[in-house]
Amino acid sequence: MLSAVFQANCGLKVHSFSIADLEAVLTDLFAHGSRIHPGIRLDRGHFMRHLAAQLGERSPRQLLASPHLADLFLACACAHHDAAAVQLFREKYLAHLPAWVRRVDASPAFADEVRQTVMERLLVGPPPRIGQYTGRGELSHWLRVVTLRTAYRLSQHQRRSREAEREWKTEMPLPASNPEKSRMRSDYREQVRSAFARAQRQLPARARQILRLHFVDGVNLDQIGKVHGVNRSTVSRWVASARTELLQTMQDQLRASLNVDAGELDSIFRLLGSQLEISLGTLMESVAG
């Protein structure tokens, strides 16, 4: 029974309803959500537990009388990675995002960056943060607040990153046994850092976010696929393509700035060795912060 699942997760007895009345109300609410969002396949038990979790200081009667229960239905389905729900969320709600963030930064690239970050934070878990939507207001209003906070945070971070890029100093020790190699490493490594940063900025927003999710945050391919509504193999191709594009662009940047050919650049990479890998990891984490 739906009422049993709901009551078990409320932490209190629902005094204002008889069992029969509560069952009827919950059945109607689930049916209403299904009618509003016919393509979504949401488990009834998941929705009952989700409803109960949103009580807060409200009484069950107040919660169940909310005009935004269809939005809660959609948010719950997104939190459980229903593909149709995620697609609807992207197409209907995130479509307004460029207009919301225009006063922060009007560039399409910035809007794409905010969109990818919002999707990452709301739809990747566990638990996905879209589950924090309580239904006290419209989902679109809640999402607008989340989006603007994200936009301001990203804008501030981008300014800090540009300032920090000019001041980055390596913290990696250099071997003292070969002074000439140590001097060459010192000459090259900051140029490698700078080229990597420029190459990363040139990637499309989705590619940057996927690399950040997978290599910095440790999110697996299946979880990324659920956010974007694609399977694991597609995400794997995206990751490989983004990584290839990033490294190729970095190499092009270095060949131009150092005025070297491909063979000379390979020699520089061999000279840097493991220190290059440390630099890349450090830089990716600084951009992700």
Could you please describe the fold and organization of this structure?
This protein has 289 residues and is mainly α. The chain folds into two domains: 2-147, no CATH class; 168-288, no CATH class. It has 15 helices and no strands. Helix 10 (179-202) crosses helix 13. The longest helix has 27 residues, at 139-165. Residues 168-177 and 274-281 have low confidence and may be disordered.
Number of strands: 0
Compressed to H and E, one letter per element, the order equals HHHHHHHHHHHHHHH
Number of domains: 2
How many H/I helices?
15
Classify the beta-strand content into a percent band.
under 5%
Cα-atom Rg, whole angstroms? 25 Å
Average pLDDT works out at 79
* Form type: elongated
Write a concise synopsis of the structure shown:
The protein is mainly alpha-helical and 289 residues long. The chain has helices at residues 2-8, 19-36, 44-53, 60-64, 69-79, 83-93, 97-101, 108-123, 139-165, 179-202, 205-216, 221-228, 232-258, 262-272, 274-288.
Key traits:
single chain; about 290 residues; mainly alpha
List the helices and strands and how they pair.
Blueprint: H1 2-8, H2 19-36, H3 44-53, H4 60-64, H5 69-79, H6 83-93, H7 97-101, H8 108-123, H9 139-165, H10 179-202, H11 205-216, H12 221-228, H13 232-258, H14 262-272, H15 274-288
Helix pairs in contact: 1-3, 2-5, 3-5, 5-6, 8-9, 8-11, 10-13, 10-15, 11-13, 12-13
